[in-house]
Structures are given as C-alpha cells and as structure tokens.
Write a structure and sequence with these properties.
By secondary structure, the protein is mostly beta strands. The protein has strands at 2-3, 12-15, 18-28, 36-43, 49-55, 59-62, 65-75, 80-84, 90-93, 109-115, 121-125, 129-137, 150-155, 160-164, 172-176, 182-185. It folds into three domains: 2-62, SH3 type barrels (Roll); 67-125, OB fold (Dihydrolipoamide Acetyltransferase, E2P) (Beta Barrel), CATH 2.40.50; 129-185, OB fold (Dihydrolipoamide Acetyltransferase, E2P) (Beta Barrel).
C-alpha cells in the first residue's frame, strides 16, 4: 500500500479493478480545504485515459512491475513478437498495447513492463527516438526554404511523417517516436 505522496509519473496502481499507469499528476493545496492530488491515469489493458482526484493521504494499491529489455523480431496478424536477449524467450504482444507501433523496426530494443507477480506483459516503451531511412519522398523545390515548410515522406517502417524540404529519398534521419516529428539528419 502506498499513499498519495508516493504518486509519480510511471507509477502503476490498481484502480477500479484495472491496472493503470500515472501519466500526469499535480499536488494541489488550495487556500481553503484539504490538499488533493489530480491525476491522469492510463489503463494498461484498454489504453483508455481517465482523470481522477485523490484526497491527500488516500491509500492506493501500487503494482510491483519489472522492466525487461526485449528485441523486436517480426509482426504477425495477432500481434508483435519480441525476444528476450538473455534467455531467448519469445513473447507476443497485442497491437493495442503499443502506442506508436508504426515506428517499430526489426532488431530494435524496447522495454516491456511486466506485472511482477502474474508475469504478464502490461505495456511497451519504445526508445525516445529512432534512426530510419527515408524510402520515398518527393524532391523539394530549389529555393523554397523561406518558410518552415515540410513535405510528406515514407520511412522504412512504412510510417508517413512530415520532413523539411531538403530531405531526399535515401537520407538517414532521426524521428521522435512519441510525436512522430522529424528531429534531425542522422550522422
């Protein structure tokens, strides 16, 4: 058992007979009345985000979780296959458990969050950025760089993102996996 003072981003708790992860939280101490904690919780089974307010000092059931590094292998019709690099165990993860599956690249290492007692996978955390090759994009017009213009481009994972006009087909770029934004050319 934990209390509201233990709430932090990434904490997994049991709430309304489901497992949730704290996405955002804010401790509020108004001038009048008791303090409280306003939270945004994401369900690890359905992916739904709910907002909840806990009174200060309220007891919450925290869930013990373990982070393990797995390597992405391939995609099947019912999910994605990952392999543990230490003992070579494989696990299949449903597609709805991954937020930005369009950036998964073969051989990429990801962290899978497991329920420590039940040994079931809860969620997958992709790296903050991925380095990919641009497989298709229209050539940019010469001299059209007065504004911060962008154009669509398809990367090797099949995802379509927006890139600056100077990026060409075959360039290696760095992409933010949380927002899908172009960061820079890879060196």
């Amino acid at each position: 058992m934990a209390s509201t003072s233990d709430i932090r981003n990434g904490l997994c708790i049991t709430f309304n007979n489901d497992i949730y992860r704290v996405v955002e939280f804010l401790h509020v101490k108004p001038g009048k009345g008791a303090a409280f904690v306003r939270t945004k919780l994401k369900s690890l089974t359905t992916g739904r985000v709910v907002e909840n307010t806990f009174p200060s000092g309220h007891k919450i059931d925290d869930v013990r979780v373990e982070r393990r590094t797995y390597q992405y292998l391939y995609e099947e019709e019912n999910g994605f296959n990952f392999m543990n690099n230490e003992n070579y165990d494989q696990v299949t993860i449903n597609k709805n458990m991954i937020d930005n599956a369009r950036f998964l690249k073969e051989g990429m290492e990801v962290e899978i969050l497991f329920h420590a007692e039940k040994e079931i996978p809860l969620t997958i955390d992709l790296p903050s950025h991925v380095i990919v090759e641009v497989t298709y994009t229209e050539p940019g017009l010469r001299g059209d760089t007065a504004t911060n213009a962008s154009k669509p481009a398809t990367i090797e994972t099949g995802a379509e993102i927006r890139v600056p006009l100077f990026i060409n087909q075959g360039d290696i770029i760095k992409v933010d996996t949380t927002t899908g934004d172009y960061i820079e050319r890879a060196k």
